Amino acid sequence: MRKYNVFGKKLSKTKALPLMIVIFFGVIAGYYLINYTQSNRLEELEQNEIILRNQINQILESEVNESYQEIGELMPFIPVSYAPQVIQNDITIAKNLSGLALSENFRVSLVNDVDSPFDETQPEDLRFVRISVSFTADDDTLALDFMNQLLDLDHMYYISSVQASYLIEGDLQIEFIIYGFYYLI
After folding, report:
1. Could you please report the per-residue DSSP string of 1-65?
2. Residue 49 pLDDT more than 70?
3. Is 79 strand, coil or helix?
4. 39-43, 73-77, 79-83: lowest mean pLDDT where?
5. How does 5-14 read in b/e, with b if 16+ C-beta sit within 10 Å?
6. What pLDDT score does 75 carry?
7. pTM of the entire structure?
8. CA separation for the pair 97, 157 (Å, rounded)
9. CA 171, CA 134: separation in Å to the nearest integer?
10. What separation, in Å, do the N-terminal and C-terminal C-alpha atoms of the chain show?
11. Under a CB-based contact definition with an 8 Å cutoff, are residues 182 and 122 in contact?
12. 64: confidence class by pLDDT, cuts 50, 70, 90
């Protein structure tokens, strides 16, 4: 075999086919490696979501075991009118104290005069306000801190449900359904 072509240029001894085969196998191996790492990450996020749900359920169940006062005993502490600005202030205070001041997509919506969240009948003059709070956080403990800060305030709130979902970026999407009360005079 010749080492130089007709013009005196040195010929390359590498062939294109083996190089293409190596590149093909490299691409296939990269595909399976990326697929494997994404599957592992998805499984890890699903496990974290299960752990978080279990923690939230344990906290909610432990709160149920506390003794409660009768509604008649609580009437002096329930507001006598619907005050959305007070509710917004309480949500803002709980948000700031729990470290959610910089959280993304923090949304609050208030619906006045909704049905009772309780199974038992309540006095006709007792009105309910449904408060929906949703936000994105990077730490699961921030949602629990928000819940504790809200319950520690001077007004009474009933947390009906909490939903947490892990996002692809690793953040959490948290949604609270909270009820506030006021006594219509």
Report:
1. --SB-TTSPBPP---HHHHHHHHHHHHHHHHHHHHHHHHHHHHHHHHHHHHHHHHHHHHHHHHHT
2. yes
3. coil
4. 73-77
5. eeeeeeeeee
6. 65
7. 0.58
8. 17
9. 13
10. 106
11. no
12. low
Is the distance from CB of 83 to CB of 143 less than 8 angstroms? no
Residue 115 is given by DSSP the state: P
Question: Is the pLDDT assigned to residue 36 strictly greater than 90?
Answer: yes
Task: Determine the pLDDT at residue 25.
Answer: 96
User: Could you report the per-residue pLDDT of 129-147, keeping only the tens digit for each?
Assistant: 999 999 888 887 888 888 8
Domains and CATH numbers, the chain: 68-183 (3.30.70.60)
Cα 107 to Cα 96: distance, rounded to the nearest angstrom: 14
The answer to whether residues 171 and 93 touch, using CB atoms and an 8 Å cutoff, is no
* Eight-state DSSP code of residue 126: E
The values of phi and psi at residue 77, to 5°, are: -100, -5
Q: Let me know: does 172 contact 138? Beta carbons within 8 Å.
A: yes
Structure-token pair, residue 16: 């294109």
Separation of alpha carbons 113 and 98, rounded Å: 28
Bigger pLDDT: 35 vs 67: 35
- 91, 110 in Cβ contact below 8 A? no
HSE, CB side, 13 Å, CA atoms: give it for residue 13. Answer: 3
CB neighbours (10 Å) of residue 108? 17
Helix axes 140-151, 16-64, angle to 10 degrees: 20
